Amino acid sequence: MGRDIDLSVNIAGINLKNPVMVASGTFGYGEEYAPYVNINKLGAIIVKGLSLTPRNGNPPPRIVETEAGMLNSIGLQNIGMDTFIKEKLPFLKKYDTKVIVNFFGDSIDEYCEIAKMAGSAPGIHGLEMNISCPNKQEGWLEFGTNSDLTFRVVSAVRKNTNLPLIVKLSPNVTDITVIARSAAEAGADAISLINTLSGMAIDIETRRPKLANIIGGLSGPAIKPVALKMVWQVARSIKLPVIGIGGIMTYKDSIEFMIAGASAVQVGTANFIDPAVTEKIIDGLELYCEQKSIKAIKEITGSIVT
Amino acid sequence: MGRDIDLSVNIAGINLKNPVMVASGTFGYGEEYAPYVNINKLGAIIVKGLSLTPRNGNPPPRIVETEAGMLNSIGLQNIGMDTFIKEKLPFLKKYDTKVIVNFFGDSIDEYCEIAKMAGSAPGIHGLEMNISCPNKQEGWLEFGTNSDLTFRVVSAVRKNTNLPLIVKLSPNVTDITVIARSAAEAGADAISLINTLSGMAIDIETRRPKLANIIGGLSGPAIKPVALKMVWQVARSIKLPVIGIGGIMTYKDSIEFMIAGASAVQVGTANFIDPAVTEKIIDGLELYCEQKSIKAIKEITGSIVT
Amino acid sequence: MLSIVLKNKRLINSYYKMKLSCEGFINALPGQFVMIKVSPHYDPLLRRPMSFHRIIPHHPPFKKGGRGEFEILYQITGKGTEIMSNLKEGNKVDILGPLGRGFWFPEGIEKAIIIAGGIGIAPMVALAEEIRKRGKGQGSRGKIIVFIGGKTKDDILCKGDFEKIGANVHIATEDGSMGKKGVCTELLKEWLIAHGSLLMAQLSIFACGPQGMLKAVADISINKNISCQVSLDKNMACGTGACLGCVVKVKNRDSRLYKCVCKDGPVFDAGEILWEEI
Amino acid sequence: MLSIVLKNKRLINSYYKMKLSCEGFINALPGQFVMIKVSPHYDPLLRRPMSFHRIIPHHPPFKKGGRGEFEILYQITGKGTEIMSNLKEGNKVDILGPLGRGFWFPEGIEKAIIIAGGIGIAPMVALAEEIRKRGKGQGSRGKIIVFIGGKTKDDILCKGDFEKIGANVHIATEDGSMGKKGVCTELLKEWLIAHGSLLMAQLSIFACGPQGMLKAVADISINKNISCQVSLDKNMACGTGACLGCVVKVKNRDSRLYKCVCKDGPVFDAGEILWEEI
Ligand SMILES: Cc1cc2nc3c(=O)[nH]c(=O)nc-3n(C[C@H](O)[C@H](O)[C@H](O)COP(=O)(O)OP(=O)(O)OC[C@H]3O[C@@H](n4cnc5c(N)ncnc54)[C@H](O)[C@@H]3O)c2cc1C
Ligand SMILES: Cc1cc2nc3c(=O)[nH]c(=O)nc-3n(C[C@H](O)[C@H](O)[C@H](O)COP(=O)(O)OP(=O)(O)OC[C@H]3O[C@@H](n4cnc5c(N)ncnc54)[C@H](O)[C@@H]3O)c2cc1C
Ligand SMILES: Cc1cc2nc3c(=O)[nH]c(=O)nc-3n(C[C@H](O)[C@H](O)[C@H](O)COP(=O)(O)O)c2cc1C
Ligand SMILES: Cc1cc2nc3c(=O)[nH]c(=O)nc-3n(C[C@H](O)[C@H](O)[C@H](O)COP(=O)(O)O)c2cc1C
Ligand code: FES
Ligand code: FES
């Protein structure tokens, strides 16, 4: 198959061999899926969201299937930056793929602290800030639902790292372009979107929420139209590269996102259904380019005809 | 089947024989589905959104199927209030069900004008304001995405009608409870939610949006978790009755919404898949009550156990 | 309405024919259609529109109430039709219909011209059978001329069905593997030239197929002033006129800009459609 | 991995047994499971976890590479299992596995006690066969005691399978329609009292079934200090430890509050689980 098709993309200064990454929280720390997918083939791995210290996450039940989607309320369970660097990063370094650390904090300080730690750990190629987390210090308002808070937390992190900095946006906002612009002005190198939509499910026998946490995040094919629309909007309104996420199951979905304006994509829930899905997507992208006589995949970014 | 189960609910002063209505835009003006469903059995019919004068709507293609959902960009095509009252209302009056007029305008004046017309047309039992429409006079900002605009348009309509007034909310906002509270303070009698989520789809062969209007509204089972969560949030934060809408396909879905806090529900996209779905839902509600020894369906509203 | 699959077989390549039975009589006209829910789950969510390919209205009742039977002819083009192709005899499918406005039969017609491209042939067998049944004047007994077009010979379906009822069949394929090389609208043009002595008012054209083809047929008919009906194809959600999703722009006669393909059509007078904006 | 349905038949009521074949050998242990994608569409979206009911590891290769065969035993409880029940011989299904940590076999065991409620019986046949194969000391040759519980006699499955390998089978049904009236954990208690002279360290309990039952078994085993393994059931998304969706609270030994049922289990030492908060 077409050796001369250039699948590489550069996002925020990170050179990816292809635009297909695995989304945070859906691929563990890489190890879990190593038996099922050729990790060397991936554009990048975004690891499960890390905080400064380990977190237990929410009580179970934590997942519910919904129509063409799923709700999760994992609650950001993670092993903490320290343990990640000591125990997981060495494994990931063995592979020829980029490692991007997804992280979050309760406070601006915590965000900055993690960014600093990442900067001094060789083998981390970039950072993805998850700003869909409540700000403990200022009334639990989610960073990512407020443009001022977004600006402040992103600028603060920017001052504390030279690593490529991706900011991942929450879709649960009135106008996502406003938040994207704040992140851009604050010094982000790229924007990724979307995180999960807020959702809920109820057991009509017990009248209890199906998730112990009551509310969870909706992901999977169900949310694809919403994600695609937001990617299109953001890509039109800022100059930074945009990474498309949300319900991508096939190479066709990936291409929709790229045409809408994404420079790269992340595959989340689809990994659960088919651990080798990313390999298939990468092959599909190549085939698409071949069939359409596209020399470099980056040409299709933003090529929507309206 | 259990004659002694009381399915009736009172919403905003309208007595419904049961809590199941058909959602605006998914049941035409009633005639279209008359051959397929027993209209006398319905709690209420919400007619296709009406404006002061007829509208042509958006160019086709106007609908796209998505995973467990569909996008539409009908663009509020309608025959206008006048023609509705003259040509469609007489037909609806023949049935023993409540008729609720869903309406919208480009300006606050247009909203008020329609409300006045509805007040003087016998056979209209209530109004549902669709505030997911851009305000032509003030920068095309959607009424329903701004709490101030919401307050202004709802108060203005309130001054122009004595009919029960339901305000239908857009889900495309950061905090739907803020908008709900504005509508409540402005004098709404009930709140219905959700309208469609903004979404998009792209044809990867032509690189064109699949909808001529580029963006459309996502409905169907895909959005149910999002709708349910918003209904729960709003029902907790205001005292008015709440009408749950979004992805309801079965009586079980309806019960989820009622447990979450809805006093009644509207069935939309499901009508397309099964025109008799509302009858089945009503029978299902009765059966559920019977099995759980619930005497009156209204008892389950807000009975969520957390 | 629950309907039972009586037969479902592949004809060639991605083309299939399914025979269905349902309680009560199917009182359908050629050009009308059903909406099929191919699976009880929500992916795919919407019903799929399928034309009546053959209508067998009065089958001897074997249970109380009797039953109707009909056939559909379909092509696998996506997940819905893929699922349909896996249905087996005895499986139940949920159908809604008959829906829409079918073909009509102008008075005083001597010759009926049927022209179809690809899977557009599906409703035309029912149509030809109905014309044959109605007889002279109402669709022209004995004088059915059929033009079928397709990419290659495997896309030419139902030739035998038309011949069986005595129609005169002309074929065009893009690769020339069957009939004339080219498109069937060219055949139609040539035929009309060759039969220039006919009174155009005694002809009636019935067309179904891809939009480009329909537009070409409409052009020809409007030019020559021949009555012409086209069956349009639009994505549908409800099939009943409720959602306003399937509209087509019409020449603004009665102040309505759009009509619904599902309810006002799918069959339209070719002169009514605003072809420039389709 | 694409797997072929060799057999799929209803046993009784909503209980079915399916035999599957897949390329390559299945190197699975009892208690492990596969995740099945029951349809290629997105409703239902997630794979469904199913235990190995019987493992037939070394089937004579008929194609290059050879193939493994295994059986699953399942109950229709929703749309996924409903779709599974409609699969026919020759259909292909996508499986992921073997997954998880299965049962293990403590040294020095004289008698293996298997206890299962309802569909919890599914992995126990593979387990009993493995114990039988391993022989004395490693699960106790000749000394398998099985307790099966169910609502009614139709919920008692696999009795014959256990008897065939010489196990001693005790049955309890809630309505008394088969065996003793009551729950199988009561039978276990009575048996332990009757066999009070046995060395508890030479017994090993293997349990699978509803959470309430597992908790009761865990109580008994902890009380009497008998080694006890339980197979847990949690909703799963990935089945591989990646999503952290299927967690269960464990007694805080190594500072981890939660473990994954899919990867650290589904089989756990009963003493490890924080039963109060399950
Ligand atoms: C009135 C009418 C009659 C028809 N009769 C026939 C027939 O007899 N035989 C036949 O093979 N086909 C017929 N079609 C086309 C047929 O409905 C589509 O091919 C079919 O819906 C495709 O479904 P899919 O899931 O396989 O494809 P997908 O592409 O997966 O479908 C995705 C969505 O697009 C819609 N869609 C896709 N293609 C079409 C299309 N061409 N027309 C309408 N909706 C489409 C589907 O309904 C669905 O909502 C007819 C269409 C109409 C409007
Ligand atoms: C490790 C393991 C092994 C299992 N082995 C078997 C077996 O051998 N035979 C058998 O009949 N069942 C087994 N189960 C339970 C089986 O997975 C569920 O009954 C099945 O997933 C239900 O799917 P459904 O679509 O029919 O039900 P639905 O209720 O429609 O499923 C909806 C969602 O809930 C999940 N779900 C529902 N019930 C369960 C459950 N009890 N456990 C886990 N997830 C559930 C489904 O996976 C799905 O995501 C096992 C479960 C686990 C965790
Ligand atoms: C189980 C699960 C865990 C997730 N954990 C994280 C996380 O730790 N950090 C984060 O930024 N996003 C997290 N996400 C969101 C995904 O990275 C992704 O944005 C979202 O699922 C939408 O993509 P998808 O539809 O392809 O899954 C998680 C998603 C799932 C399903
Ligand atoms: C084709 C279509 C047309 C609609 N038209 C209107 C409308 O005119 N006014 C309105 O308030 N909502 C309209 N809606 C939104 C529905 O009333 C409903 O809020 C939404 O579809 C979510 O419910 P559902 O998932 O049950 O369809 C429309 C929805 C669809 C699918
Ligand atoms: S498909 Fe709904 S109006 Fe035609
Ligand atoms: S199912 Fe994903 S971690 Fe267990």
Structural class of chain C: alpha/beta
Work out the count of structural domains of chain A.
1
Q: What name does CATH use for the topology of chain A?
A: TIM Barrel
Radius of gyration from the alpha-carbon trace of chain A, in angstroms = 18 Å
Instruction: Give the CATH architecture of chain A.
Output: Alpha-Beta Barrel
Radius of gyration of chain C: 18 Å
- Going by helix content, strand content and strand pairing, the class of chain A is alpha/beta
Instruction: Name the hetero compounds present.
Output: flavin-adenine dinucleotide, flavin mononucleotide, FE2/S2 (inorganic) cluster
Number of helices of chain C: 5
Task: Please state the second-level CATH architecture of the largest domain in chain C.
Answer: 3-Layer(aba) Sandwich
- Percent helix of chain A, as a range, is 25-40%
Strand order, largest beta sheet of chain C? 4-3-7-1-2-6-5
What is the CATH superfamily label of chain A?
Aldolase class I
Q: Regarding CATH, which class of chain A?
A: Alpha Beta
Notes on the structure:
- The complex is a heterotetramer, with two copies of chain A (306 residues) and two copies of chain C (278 residues).
- With 306 residues, chain A is of the alpha/beta class.
- Chain A has a single domain (9-57, 75-197, 220-299), classed as TIM Barrel (Alpha-Beta Barrel).
- Chain A has helices spanning 80-93, 108-119, 147-159, 176-185, 224-237, 251-260, 270-273, 277-291, and strands at 9-11, 14-16, 20-22, 44-46, 63-66, 69-72, 98-103, 126-130, 165-168, 190-193, 197-200, 202-203, 208-209, 215-219, 242-245, 264-267.
- Chain A has an eight-stranded parallel barrel, surrounded by five helices. Chain A has a four-stranded antiparallel beta sheet with strand order 5-6-14-11, with no helix packed on it.
- In chain A, helix 5 (224-237) packs parallel to helix 6 (251-260).
- Chain A is globular and about 50 Å long.
- Chain A starts with 8 loop residues before the first strand and ends in a 15-residue tail after the last helix.
- Chain C is an alpha/beta fold and 278 residues long.
- Chain C has two domains: 2-99, Elongation Factor Tu (Ef-tu), domain 3 (Beta Barrel); 111-277, 3-Layer(aba) Sandwich (Rossmann fold), CATH 3.40.50.80.
- Chain C has helices at 79-85, 122-134, 159-164, 184-194, 211-224; strands at residues 2-12, 15-23, 33-37, 48-51, 54-59, 67-75, 92-99, 111-117, 144-150, 168-173, 180-181, 203-208, 227-231, 247-249, 258-260, 267-269.
- In chain C, helix 4 packs parallel to helix 5.
- The longest helix of chain C is centred in the C-terminal third of the chain and has 14 residues, at 211-224.
- The model of chain C has no long low-confidence stretch (mean pLDDT 90).
- Chains A and B meet through strand 11, strand 13, strand 14, helix 5 and helix 6 of A and strand 11, strand 13, strand 14, helix 5 and helix 6 of B.
- The structure holds flavin-adenine dinucleotide (FAD) (2 copies), flavin mononucleotide (2 copies) and FE2/S2 (inorganic) cluster (FES) (2 copies).
